[in-house]
Amino acid sequence: MPDVPEFEDNTWTYRVGPATPFRSGFRREVENYLDMTHFAFAHATTLGKAADVRLPKMNITVREDGGYQMDAPFPALDSPHEQPGKLQSAHHRRQRGWMPNFTTIRQSFTDGDERVLVHIPSPNTRETCTVFWSLAISSGFRGPSPESQIDFAIKVLDEDRQMCELQIPAEVPINPTRGGWGVLVMPGDTLANTFQKQFRRWLQRELSPPRSSPPADT
Q1: Which domains does the chain possess?
Q2: CA–CA separation, 89 vs 47, rounded Å?
Q3: What is the band of 78 on the pLDDT scale with cuts at 50, 70, 90?
């Protein structure tokens, strides 16, 4: 599994969230987690209370290990009707994915505070998974207590769970057919499309038979 240095840093506060079962496939859950347009809708009363409905500019790169990284601002409104709390305010998001199901999000706030979340949806069956997650908070974080942040994250994750469990089919096809379920065509789907492509490439590598060594000269 990837190293997350902040989880080993004694100057940071580390908390583990409760494992959360989803009645949806793990790829469905991953794609929901990667969506940068749903904050103002699916999380209107929590994380997206002061979110902009417009898609922020995303910089997406494919990494040498087969994973991907996205750098983008959280879509917070410049002049919201309701003053956001710390966790809903403007910040930079660096989202890093490793195949097949390991994701970290580093949130860098304008005042220098940071958080790192780890998110791992582990499949139980083809159409169910359990999400394992944890949180590291930088030293001197000016905001809610660690316990309050975990409670807040539980509410956000439950909103995602409800969204995922309403979608049909329960799992995203590995290779969606043209015009069929799982085909993503909106600009906000760019990151999920990157995940789909990299996941298929990872599967092809994992399932390819190993090359046999040539016979040694005698």
Answers
A1: 5-205 (3.90.380.10)
A2: 9
A3: low
